[in-house]
Amino acid sequence: MRYPTFSFQKLLLQFIRNCLKLHAAVLPVVAGLSLSSAQQSRMRKSPYLIYPNRPAEMTVLWQMENSATCQLRWGTTPACSTGRVLTTETGQTIDEHQHIHTLSELTPNRLYYYQVVENGVIHHGTFRSAPPDTADSTSFFIYGDTRTYPQMHDSVLSGICHTIRNAPSRQTILLHTGDWTASSWESYWDMEYFNRAYPHTLEVLSKIPVLGAIGNHEVEGDETVYRKYWPYPYERGGFYYAFDYGPVHISVIDQYSDYSPGSEQFQWLENDLAWSDKQWKFILLHEPGFSDEGAHGNNFQVQIILHPLCLRYGVSGVFSGHNHFYAHCTVDGVHHLTLGGGGAPLYQVYHTGKGLITSETSLHYAYVNVRPDSAAVAVIRPDGTVVEEFSIVETPEPPLPIPKKTALFDVYTLRSLKLLVVETVNYKNATVTLLDVGGRMMLNRKLMTPRTVIDLAAYPRGVYVTRVATETSAVPAKIVLF
Predict the structure, then answer these.
(1) CB within 8 A of 12, min separation 6: which ones?
(2) How far is CA 144 from CA 125, 138, 287, 346, in A?
(3) Burial of 373 (0-12, 13-18, 19+ CB in 10 A)
């Protein structure tokens, strides 16, 4: 019997062919497994944080690409063993798929870890809970105008990342002065502020609560999208609100809703500032009243409406953006900071402006360290170099004392500011009338709150008669405008 013979070369060739066939069959499977693993995550806008104005709470938000049930875990160690909850999306529209959950019963001023688990993928984050109301010190970051260039925005946030890595106690809150994106449509938020291709953006959003003001570019788009991503405790009729953070009170202004004297927002703001007992008060808005005169210039309404309130109620500083540069002006002891270097195309400075101390065309952010006797401010470029450092040593005093009530109605003026103030507990169904010396009616306004402030800047100097009237009585008073 003859047996078939095979050369060594033939056996080796056959072995190689079999291996190639096996590789060709297995490769698509392996590639498919790798692709499946890479596609497991359906996160559209990564976990980010909002401080809900309560030291024992923190709100975690994220948006998925599709409907999904997620799990949120949290705790004081990386194991996140304190609590866990299943979350579902908050709405049913095509661009919704948003998850929101507020953690409660937190210990103030403590580092917490959290995890968002979706489709088997874990997204990690941390935050430091707010200081208690009784705290006499804290700190926070500020920046703005992050629109258009996400890579430039990411470079600014790289500086904040470096800061909190080296000084963990500075992991507090981040204030935003508006113009987050070029327009407030879903695609812009995807491409710009929440762009997941930028690691420092993802890190800061997962670690620091962001609280901000609405800008003109958000108004130009879909305001409902802005409200969805940033559901702050807005007051009725606009995007204005206020919050406390330790010894600091922040009033956030909506400059695209009416805030003239007598308006709902003005009355809210005055009451908000008057009732706050915090040592440090700041205003956050988009368009500056006092800045370098390059680019957009100054907002006149801030000068004649908001700046007088700063003087009256001891506001230490006003934070704004809109102009894509840094500027620091001091007017009547109030510090007005333009912090528009968050990533948008930079503007040239003119080095002129009322009360201007310094200005610079650069990317930047500010860090404010508040202590009982001072608030130290550092304006920093992404590479860590300092644009300016200064201290606010005390809050400005009101130019005139607030008179105490001596009658049913109190009517008086702040002469240097040309503001008419009417105070009464019985303001319902009451009106205030302003007459010139010839008896001609110049103004007639219904009282809406216990204190009504009316701007008389447009009225000529001279003697006027005011009359506060109810259904049963009228109280006249003479005032003089200087």
Answers:
(1) none
(2) 23, 21, 11, 12
(3) exposed
Mean pLDDT value across residues 93-115 = 93
Distance CA 272, CA 317 (A): 16
Judged by DSSP in three states, 36 sits in helix
> Residue length, the chain?
482
Are 387 and 364 a contacting pair, CB within 8 Å? yes
Tokens standing for residue 355: 């009360």
| Rounded distance between C-alpha atoms, residue 417 and residue 482, angstroms | 9
The mean pLDDT of the chain is 86
- φ/ψ of residue 236, rounded to 5: -65, 135
Whether residues 238 and 328 share a domain: the answer is yes
Task: Give the list of residues 6+ apart from residue 275 with CB closer than 8 angstroms, or none.
Answer: none
In a domain, 121, yes or no: no
Structure tokens at 54: 């309560």
282 has pLDDT over 90: yes
**Residue 256 above 50 pLDDT?**
yes
Torsion angle defined by CA atoms of residues 277, 282, 285 and 287, in that order, rounded to the nearest 10 degrees: 140
Do 154 and 234 fall within a single domain? Answer: yes
428 falls in which pLDDT band (50, 70, 90)? Answer: confident
Q: How confident is the model at residue 25 (pLDDT cuts 50, 70, 90)?
A: very low
Please tell me whether residues 190 and 268 are part of one structural domain: yes
DSSP string of 35-59, one letter each residue: HHHHT---EEEEEEEE--S-TT-EE
Q: Which of 392, 422, 454 represents a domain boundary (last residue)?
A: 392
- Domain with residue 438: its CATH number is 2.60.40.3080
Q: What is the mean pLDDT of residues 53-59?
A: 95
Nearest to 43 by CA among 206, 210, 232: 206
One domain for residues 355 and 444: no
Q: Domain of residue 465: give its range.
A: 409-481
State the total domains in the chain. Answer: 2
Whether residue 373 is found in the same domain as residue 334: yes
Same domain, yes or no: 369 and 431: no
User: Which of 136-150, 297-311, 465-479 is predicted least confidently?
Assistant: 465-479
Residues 368 and 436 occupy one common structural domain: no
Query: What are the angstrom distances between the C-alpha of 354 and each of 29, 308, 416?
Result: 69, 16, 18
State which of 366, 392, 418 marks the end of a domain: 392
Mean pLDDT of 191-212: 97
Using CA atoms, how far residue 83 sits from 43, 86, 112, 115, 381, in Å, is 22, 11, 11, 11, 39
Region of poorest pLDDT, from 85-94, 147-156, 457-466? 457-466
CA distances (Å), origin 201, targets 72, 149, 194, 239: 21, 12, 7, 24
Looking at per-residue pLDDT, the higher value among 212 and 90 belongs to: 212
Percent of the chain whose predicted confidence (pLDDT) is above 70:
83
